[in-house]
């Protein structure tokens, strides 16, 4: 019996409320399949990747594609068409291994692929979606700029018409997968409003430079992009949307994956703390036997289960076509904040050992600092909920 295994007849210490029993057989199968993949393929290497600041995207993408994880919640074009909760539990297991891996999956499926799937022409869908779903191609999503993150309406990247073509100029920042992508979905100001463009990254004038010195999401590719008078054909534009509704709807999909993924990161921290507490002996007994340690573990277990239930509920609402943007913001704000608190508390249980890559806790905590900020900062999601509650917008 492992340090975290329940005694016969006792509640599961990792899932005290048996939330997993709310999943369907198919959802549990997906959960367990992804967990085995991360156990075999990711966990043996992730501490080294994080320490060295590398992510083998080209190597892993086809494996993730074979597993059906890339764009798994989309229909057709080689995508699995999985339900919202099935996709959620996959994100949970992926982020239990590392937030950088879940970021790759989210950007590929919920941002780049989703934009093309929802707003692209049939030619764009046929050209890119099967390749992205299989992991034979990698995509990125370019919205954020050096001076415009939470306020994308102020973006300075522009696309102007030149005869039948487009000329794209500007820059983007904090772009996951940027330097390894084969295709970028780039959002730019035009005379008609904000438009999306499907941009092959081998287009002359496209450059990507990795962001140096990261202390978070180190096992993830994060890049700055520059567009120097890129000449694009007329059919590079996404025909199905004009305005910020396009990119913001994609971000909402990515936020949904985050509110599930952070449950996985939190669970991994809690499980590591529990196992350590049962094996670490001080003053002649395991520290799990001391009241203050038990209090920390109980608080972690309570908040973990609440976050799991939040994710499950929003997933079922999404499957019913009833999930609202404010509810996704609720999940993103609550579950990232919960995961961070659990990671920090778990680190104190591990003591000095908790700051090393021998344990996943501080790696998760560092990653979650980025997750707290991207796809909408905690402040922005607070204002989304404030508006939902009061009917008053407080953004400006």
UniProtKB/TrEMBL annotation:
Domain Acyl-CoA oxidase/dehydrogenase middle: 140-229
Domain Acyl-CoA dehydrogenase/oxidase N-terminal: 24-135
EC numbers on record: 1.3.8.6
Residue spans crossing the bilayer: none
Reported cofactor(s): FAD
Annotated keywords: FAD, Flavoprotein, Oxidoreductase, Transit peptide
Gene3D superfamilies noted in UniProt: Acyl-CoA dehydrogenase/oxidase, N-terminal domain, Butyryl-CoA Dehydrogenase, subunit A, domain 2, Butyryl-CoA Dehydrogenase, subunit A, domain 3
Residue span(s) of domain Acyl-CoA dehydrogenase/oxidase C-terminal: 243-389
Top-tier EC class: oxidoreductase
UniProt record, GO biological process: fatty acid beta-oxidation using acyl-CoA dehydrogenase; fatty-acyl-CoA biosynthetic process
Pfam families from the UniProt entry: Acyl-CoA_dh_1, Acyl-CoA_dh_M, Acyl-CoA_dh_N
Any GO MF annotation of the entry: glutaryl-CoA dehydrogenase activity
Family under the similarity heading: Belongs to the acyl-CoA dehydrogenase family.
Protein name, as recorded: Glutaryl-CoA dehydrogenase
Organism, as annotated: Kitasatospora kifunensis (Streptomyces kifunensis)
């Amino acid at each position: 019996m492992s340090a975290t295994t329940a005694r016969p007849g006792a509640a599961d210490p990792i899932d005290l409320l048996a939330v997993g029993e709310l999943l369907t057989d198919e959802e549990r199968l997906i959960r367990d399949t992804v967990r085995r993949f991360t156990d075999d393929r990711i966990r043996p290497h992730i501490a080294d990747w994080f320490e060295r600041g590398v992510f083998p995207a080209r190597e892993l993408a086809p494996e993730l594609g074979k597993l059906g994880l890339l764009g798994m919640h989309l229909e057709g074009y080689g995508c699995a068409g999985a339900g919202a909760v099935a996709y959620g539990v996959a994100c949970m297991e992926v982020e239990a291994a590392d937030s950088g891996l879940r970021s790759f999956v989210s950007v590929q499926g919920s941002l780049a692929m989703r934009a093309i799937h929802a707003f692209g022409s049939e030619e764009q869908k046929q050209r890119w979606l099967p390749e992205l779903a299989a992991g034979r191609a990698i995509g990125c999503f370019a919205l954020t700029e050096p001076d415009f993150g939470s306020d994308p309406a102020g973006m300075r990247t522009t696309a102007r018409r030149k005869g039948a073509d487009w000329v794209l100029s500007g820059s983007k920042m904090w772009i996951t997968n940027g330097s390894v992508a084969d295709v970028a979905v780039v959002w730019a100001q035009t005379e008609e409003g904000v438009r999306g463009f499907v941009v092959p990254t081998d287009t002359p004038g496209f450059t990507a430079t990795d962001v140096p010195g990261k202390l978070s999401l180190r096992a993830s590719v994060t890049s700055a992009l520059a567009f120097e008078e890129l000449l694009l054909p007329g059919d590079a534009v996404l025909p199905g949307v004009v305005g910020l509704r396009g990119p913001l709807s994609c971000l909402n999909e990515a936020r949904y994956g985050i509110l599930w993924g952070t449950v996985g990161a939190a669970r991994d921290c809690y499980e590591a703390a529990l196992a350590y507490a049962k094996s670490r002996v001080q003053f002649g007994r395991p520290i799990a036997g001391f009241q203050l340690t038990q209090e920390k573990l109980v608080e972690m277990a309570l908040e973990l289960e609440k976050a799991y239930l939040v994710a499950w509920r929003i997933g079922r609402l999404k499957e019913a076509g009833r999930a609202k943007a404010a509810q996704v913001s609720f999940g993103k704000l609550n579950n990232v904040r919960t995961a961070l608190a659990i990671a920090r508390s778990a680190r104190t249980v591990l003591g000095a050992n908790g700051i090393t890559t021998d344990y996943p806790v501080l790696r998760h905590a560092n990653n979650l600092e980025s997750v707290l900020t991207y796809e909408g900062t905690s402040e922005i999601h607070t204002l989304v909920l404030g508006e939902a509650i009061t009917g008053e917008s407080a953004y400006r």
